[in-house]
Design goal:
single chain; alpha+beta; Aminopeptidase; seven-stranded mixed beta sheet; 7 strands; globular; Bact_Acetyltransf; transferase; Acyl_CoA_acyltransferase; acyltransferase
Amino acid sequence: MLSIRRATVADLPAILGIIRRVVPVMNAAGNFQWEGDYPNEAVFRQDIERNQLWVAELEDGQLAGVAALTTDQDPEYAQADWDATAPAVVTHRLAVDPAAQGRGVAAALLQQAEVLAREWNLHLLRVDTNSENQATQRLFPKLGYRFAGEIGLGFRPGLRFFCYEKQLPLEPTTS
C-alpha cells in the first residue's frame, strides 16, 4: 500500500537519497535534466516551507517518490500549445526511487495533483519533462495528459522539454 502525504523537513535526507539514486539512472538513459546541483536541498526545503512538496510512502515507512505540486508556471510555458494565463496545478521535480519504479508511485503523485486541483477549484494539470525522458513520455498520455509542445527552460540551457496538459472534467454545479 502506498500513501501520499505532505513532506516535512525530517523527510529531506530520504528525499535527497532518492535524487542521488535517480540522477545516475536518468543520466545513463541520456536524460540530463537533473545533475548534482539540481534539484538540491535548498529547493526541496523551499518546497516544504511553501507546503507544496508531497511524498509517496511505502507501508514500511520508506519514501518511494517525491513531487512538488504548485501553481507555479515557468515563463517559458508561454511557448507551449496552451493558454499560459490559465491557472493550473503544475507538477515539478517528480522523482521515483529506482527501487520502487513500476509500482505506480508516479501515477499516485500525479493523482494527488488532481486532488489538489479539485480542492483549489482548478481544472488544468500541467507538467514538463526532458525531451530525453522516455518513461514520462509514455506515462503522461496513459494518465490522460495531452502533448502540448516543446519548450526551452532558461535555467536548464541547451535542453529541450516536452509539455503535457490534462483537462479535468468540470464538476456539475448543484443549485
